[in-house]
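Q: I'm writing up a methods section and want to include an example of the input and output format. Could you take the sequence below and give the corresponding predicted structure tokens, formatted cleanly so I can copy it straight into the document?
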Amino acid sequence: MLSQLEAQPADALLALIKLHRDDPREDKIDLGVGVYRTDDGATPVFGAIKAAERRLLEQQDSKAYLGPDGDLGFVAALMPYVFGASDPDRGGRIAGVQTPGGTGAVRLALALAKKAGVRRVLLGKPSWPNHAQIIADLGLETVTFDHAQADGTANLAALEQAMAGAGGETALLLHGCCHNPTGIDYSPDQWRSIAAALVSSGALPIVDVAYQGLGEGMAEDAAGLAIVLDAVPEALVAYSCDKNFGLYRDRVGALYVMTQAASNLPAILSNIVAFARASWSMPPDHGAAAVRLVLEDPALTRQWQNELTAMRARMRAMRERLAAGDNEVAGMNLAPLARQHGLFAMLPLSPAQVERLRADHAVYMAGSGRINVAGLTSHNIDRFIAALAAVAA
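A: Here is the clean output for your methods example:
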């Protein structure tokens, strides 16, 4: 029976990782893998997380199961940052569970939406590839619309057109901030238009918040989500701590649900827990416990926020240098990169140009033209801009 299974296409990013690893050139540049890097090319453990882990080592007295809803102290500690400090549970209408990373949260959100009656999901393209894979795996229909315009801004008209023709049984999957892969976020006015479209259509918003704090700041990056939640009666929010706490391999996330009335939460949460139990049974403890300890200690919270501020400043500097190189690269509009956010950006490169960058200049990036901005450093960015100019000529 198993011998009948057909081989699946190789993951392009994994192949890129191997090519980069095997390249002997000392000046090679890796812009493919989506993790933050310092100006020296390292992906360190946050100092605040290290301090919290030391406390865990000394104080944790059991490794017993947490239960399928995970560390609820962690879930609660995040809520003021995600939903605002003044009323984080919006009068008892928001609750959540811990998940294995943001991917687990997205999977749980879409499974719950399907059980609630959603049959199609509106998805801006391009998007994080796993979004479409999860939607398809759950047997939901994907309806795409163009997320970005040629001028480097979000295509609100395309979203509104997709919403107008969506009808019932529809969910809209949105990136909360630092759009992956384009870096192009909606403006506050656009978020208000999206909220109005959600209200008029009755579609269910599912907001994937994977990079809060890597754009303009924790509060600023949650502003669009707040606009939507102020307008709609219910929503699902998938959250990841993998990037803003540097916990990639520990898989730290949460799924939150906002419902029209607090009395609806027990039934909804029972469905979420049932899906979690059938999927991974119990979520991993360590990373979520470390985040909880950071957020419970004011000194560690300040240290974490300072580290996050330094990450943003470094990526902003790389974006501004790229944008300033606009006149150095013929026919390639780099100026919009300065007003975009987060780890990722899309460059208007053909697959042939991407291949020339790899072969001739030891620059490794996705064939789509997506780059990890944090893969650029003060040591290699000028050479990267020169390489762009060479392949664009």
